Amino acid sequence: MRRIYYRFPQRIDLTFTLGLPFPEALKHIVTELDGAETTKTTGKELVKVKSKVEIAVDRATFGEITPDILKPGAITEAADLRISVLALALRGGGKVPIANDAFLVRLTDRTKYTDIEISKEGDVPGLDALDVKNLILGKS
User: Which residues partner with 42 through β-bridges?
Assistant: First the structure.
């Protein structure tokens, strides 16, 4: 069964290939990014990055990812994900939001590898598709 979002944009910001079969790629993205919190230093600031992953439910909305979705054979061919990323600068007075972005990510099965397309929702400056690719690949 395909899990696709019918309003996925025609404009793609970044396309790359992940060297994992489709089920493994989907599981990798969900386990690495859903609810993940990382801290990194950028210049002179300490930044906390939180991410959340949702999957297309009925071609029109996104919903939570359940363990049933990650079972082998539950999703085939393609899946659309929404990855929300919140970046907070940890400054002396507290946490200051510096990015609150959402990205649409389409995974397409190519047997031995998976094609991934990333498109940012909205035009607000902040993170870009390359940042999401680095999150997926585990590079911060």
Answer: 45
* Strand, coil or helix: 96: strand
pLDDT single digits (tens) 42-95: 778 888 889 999 999 888 899 999 888 888 888 888 999 999 999 888 888 888
Q: Is 71 helix (H, G, I), strand (E, B) or coil?
A: coil
Which residues lie across from 103 on neighbouring strands? 83, 120
DSSP state of 68: G
DSSP letters along 1-64, please? --B--TT--S--SEEEEESS-HHHHHHHHHHHHTT-EEEEEETTEEEEEEEEEEEESSSS-EE-
